[in-house]
Amino acid sequence: MFARLGDFEGASVLDLFAGSGALGIEALSRGAASAVFVERAGAVAAVLRSNLDSLDLANRSRVLRADAPGAVRRLAQEGLRFDLVLLDPPYAEPDAAERTLRALATSGILARHATLVVEASRRAPPAAVEGLVAVDERRYGDTLVIRLEPADPGVQQRAERNGE
What we know:
The chain has helices at residues 2-5, 22-29, 42-54, 68-77, 96-107, 153-161; strands at 12-16, 34-38, 61-64, 82-87, 110-121, 132-140, 143-150. By secondary structure, the chain is an alpha/beta fold. The protein folds into two domains: 8-15 and 28-80 and 102-109, Rossmann fold (3-Layer(aba) Sandwich), CATH 3.40.50; 110-125 and 133-164, no CATH class.
């Protein structure tokens, strides 16, 4: 997946539904400057923190224990912006990706040319979300990997200038 995404040297990454942190850790290993990991399960978040510590990545990382849409709202209130957003929601929650994408599209946390990557079940892909456009879609067995971008980077840039 990362080979297709290109260079993220110095990028700010948001890993939603982080689990063990594999996706965000991979982004950090490929040169991302920082990553925020969002995981709602306490025990899983503890394992994630341990993984970051053992890989000496804790100083470039932050772990939030929260649901994904709530974390998006919180990060927006903090004024953070992200270049790369990774979503790997549980297949058992087919509406989780769509709810989170809607929150992202309206939050103002996407950098001007942000890239979003969603892993979902091929059998239950997320519906299209206003404000985001799919630019690539790949199928790997039962997994669907969708790459999205803001539909109008100019709108996002204006929001950034206005502090939204």
